[in-house]
Amino acid sequence: MPPNASVPRSIPSVDRLLAVCSPEIERFGRSMVTELIRGLLAEVRAGEQPQLVAGDDFDEPAFTAILRTKLDGACAPSQRKVLNLTGTVLHTNLGRAVLPPEAAATVADAMTAATNLEYDLAKGSRGERDDHVAAWLTRLTGAEAATVVNNNAAAVLIVLATLAPRKEVIVSRGELVEIGGAFRIPDIMSRAGCRLVEVGTTNRTHPRDYADAIGPRTAAIMKVHTSNYAIQGFTAHVAEDKLADLAHARDLPFLVDLGSGTLVDLERWGLPHEPTARETLGHGADLVTFSGDKLLGGPQAGLIAGRRELVARINRNPLKRALRVDKMRLAALEAILKLYADPDRLCARLPTLAWLTRSRAEIERVADAVTPALRAALDGHAEVRQVECRSQIGSGSLPVDLLASVGVALRPLEGKRKSGRQVERLAAAFRKLPLPVIGRIQDGTLVFDLRTLDDPRLLTRQLAALDLGAGAGAGRMQAQSSATAIAS
Q1: In the prediction, which pLDDT does 487 show?
Q2: With contact defined as beta carbons under 8 Å apart, do 432 and 478 qualify?
Q3: CA-wise closest residue to 396 among 202, 226, 223, 187
């Protein structure tokens, strides 16, 4: 029906349509159903749903079907499970670390009942929420005390705001890190109310650079682990123990931001070495900060461990309440930390570590399982072949270290459309599956790195739903957005 055509008199009233939508009202609620009925009727009157009217006849069953689809779409969860086949294990855009079942179970328990979050059951009085994880953190790091906030940027912020307000903090120019979302160490220092004093050069910093910068306004020396980039070649940096000696000789605290951070030596499983919180404190750091949802493999959190007196000062800062974590994250973090008490079984129980240490042979077996199904589903549309891949850890962890992996490459067959648009349409079609599949677009090919695919059936059993004609409109823009996100 064109926009200027007369409106058929047979269009039913809202009340009439509500009367035949009892199942929808039972499922979605009367308010939501009424709102969407009115919206859909407005589309009919504007000529935007011509298939629903023919002359003076109104197709009520078709209207109800469209309404049901709109209700399903409006009430579907915005945050959905996806298959991360990008080759980036800790993908920031895809939620970083995946929790093991025991951690998920403790979160569910905390969500569905009252808990002793800030209640001491033994004393029958108010308690501290951080006590649920502080003892585990001190045991695993060797620190005197520990506390937790909502992410590592918050941890750095509250440490600086507590120890160096209106004073100076010395940092090497080679360590002025920028993390995702353009958050930078200098900006965090500024918001914390302290003044950054840069020393050395981008590639070389010496002990005398720090010593010469210490003045009456100096509040701390800080070292920032460059966990998301590496400077190579003609370089020099000052070891942590040397900086600790210098700071303590001048009665200053020595702070270390590990960024990603870990509680165990990853070399045990054949991975590159990453500084642990325990060894950093052993080098003389007074406080160390690191993330919970990166190499640690837990929920988003910022962990602070070190000297008891300094941690106590941080906990007294009013910012602590603004940056505190809720009972669900504390429950998940406690469950993750308990796994670290049994390092012999950690690799099998922590998904992040299991994926990072997965053998090439095991990944190849997954590739052998999915390749025939993909070839059958894409017959006549794309060439499917197994390829060698290099996975990355992601989220600013060990940025130059890549892991040998196996994947499948899907290259659209040549046709009338440009190959670039074809691969974008192909990527969009996989994102529209019931369990969206996210890969990476590389050289006109859609690549699925199978390192993080545990069960091949999660991919193969839904290929029958693959609509290779989908994604023509917004698909191109969405595919470009996904390709950009993969680089994070």
Answers
A1: 35
A2: no
A3: 226
CA angle 355, 359, 365 (to 5 degrees): 100
List all residues 6 or more positions away from 127 whose beta carbon is below 8 Å from its beta carbon: 116, 118, 119, 120
Task: Report the Cα–Cα distance between both ends of the chain, in Å, rounded.
Answer: 47
pTM: 0.87
- The amino acid present at 196, given as its one-letter code, is L
**pLDDT confidence bin for 296, thresholds 50/70/90:** very high
Confidence at residue 81, expressed as pLDDT on a 0 to 100 scale:
96
* Cβ neighbours of 140 (radius 10 Å): 21
- CATH 3.90.1150.180 in the chain, residues? 83-93+355-486
Say whether domain 83-93+355-486 belongs to CATH 3.40.50.460.
no
Name 367's Cβ contacts closer than 8 Å, sequence gap at least 6. Answer: 386, 406, 407, 408, 450
106-156: pLDDT as tens digits: 999 999 999 999 999 999 999 999 999 999 999 999 999 999 999 999 999
Sheet of 287-291: strand order equals 145-149, 302-306, 287-291, 254-259, 218-224, 168-172, 195-199
Structure-token pair, residue 230:
């590496």
What pLDDT band is residue 322 in, cutting at 50, 70 and 90? very high
Considering the domain 101-347, what is its CATH architecture?
3-Layer(aba) Sandwich (3.40)
- Residues of the chain within CATH 3.40.640.10 domain(s) are 101-347
Question: What does the block give as tokens for 421?
Answer: 């648009």
